[in-house]
Write the structure tokens for this entry.
Amino acid sequence: MPHLITLPLQWENEIPPPQLHRTLHANLYAWFAAADANLADDLHRQPVRKPFTLSPFTRHGGNGPLTGSGHGWALRVALLEDDLWEPFRAGLQARPFADLMGHTVPLALERLEVHHRSYAELLEGASAGTRIALRFLTPTCFRAGDLDSPLPEPRSIVRSWLSRWSQYAPPDLCINVALVDVAQVHVAVSGYDLRTEVTDLGYGKQMGFVGRVTLRVVKARKLGEEILRQLNALADYAEFCGTGRKTTHGMGQTRRIRRSG
């Protein structure tokens, strides 16, 4: 069951220092280690794809990294495996602060927000819509051979989501990898408002796109409702799993934009 946790910090009046990606990553492991050192070691030893994503700072109550309105700052952590939530919560209780480049900043745990949806709920609650509007809050890019591609190519977007779903969802809820080929043929970009942006990860700089993208499923009648629901379930999952590369270091933070009314 994926969990999305908003961690408010008692850092009310100043902008947090830049280039905190590695520091935030280290704090995440420290919270796990405070509850279960072996689990923290296991997570650290896992290959590049890890069962969590991590955002840069957001305004608590705001809509995006370092933007929006609200009081104080917060971090967003998404856990993609259900059995990570309890040790993470225990670690926060044991270590109710963040170490930010020499600043010990308390966590406002009384304002902790937790949103969760099971993989089954994501599939069962998905629509069969043909329009998927997305907002990419932090730089997003994809690996293309030996290069990084800062382009919102539908096949790359869907492949990114599906790779995480396939790794962490229960086996009985698997989605066929052929959906990536479906995306290449039937999913197109119908609108966008994007810019490229460079982020400093602390060990190197990375370029990606940020902004809004609308995807449209074309010739949807040929696909059927089940395929459409799977595409929409993955788009809903994006808020948890992120999109593209280095989502454990704050890149690829994604929100789905839904029409009002």
